[in-house]
Design goal:
Blueprint: H1 2-9, E1 12-19, E2 22-28, E3 41-45, E4 48-52, E5 56-63, H2 67-71, H3 78-96, H4 117-121
Antiparallel strand pairs: 1-2, 1-5, 3-4
C-alpha cells in the first residue's frame, strides 16, 4: 500500500534521444545522452552562412504526481486533528515503554534423601 502511495505522489521525466528513426538513449530524471550528430552543418558559399537541420530529435515525457492527495491533508477538521495527535502520542508512548523483564524460574534444590532405599530393600543393580 505504501508503494502505491509513493508512486502516485512521485513525478518524474523520461527523456528519449532519437537519431533518425532509431532510439539511441533513454534517461529517467536527467537528460538523455546525444549521439553527437545533432550539430547543424554550416557551409560558407559566397559569404552566406547556411545551415542544414539535424536528423536527431529529442522527446521528453513528463509524469506528474497526483496533486489531489497533497491537498487532502489541509482539510482536517479540529476533531480529526485531535485524533491524529492523540494517536501519535499514544503510539510513541507504547513504543518507548520499558519492556517487561522475564521472570527467572525459581531454582529449588532436590529434597534430601532420608533413607537409602537400595540398602533398605537390598536391591542392587549388577
Amino acid at each position: 500500500m505504501s508503494a502505491i502511495v509513493l508512486l502516485s505522489t512521485l513525478s518524474f521525466t523520461v527523456d528519449k534521444h532519437f537519431c533518425g528513426d532509431f532510439l539511441v538513449d533513454v534517461a529517467v530524471f536527467k537528460s538523455a545522452k546525444s549521439c553527437g550528430m545533432e550539430k547543424a552543418v554550416t557551409t560558407d558559399d559566397c559569404g552566406d552562412s547556411m545551415s542544414r537541420k539535424s536528423c536527431c530529435s529529442d522527446e521528453q515525457v513528463v509524469f506528474d504526481s497526483d496533486q489531489d492527495r497533497k491537498e487532502s491533508v489541509k482539510e482536517l477538521s479540529l476533531e480529526q486533528q485531535y485524533f491524529v495527535v492523540s494517536f501519535i502520542s499514544t503510539y510513541q508512548s507504547a513504543l518507548n515503554a520499558p519492556a517487561a523483564k522475564a521472570e527467572t524460574p525459581v531454582v529449588r534444590p532436590p529434597p534430601l534423601v532420608v533413607k537409602d532405599y537400595q540398602i533398605l530393600y537390598e536391591t542392587f543393580l549388577i
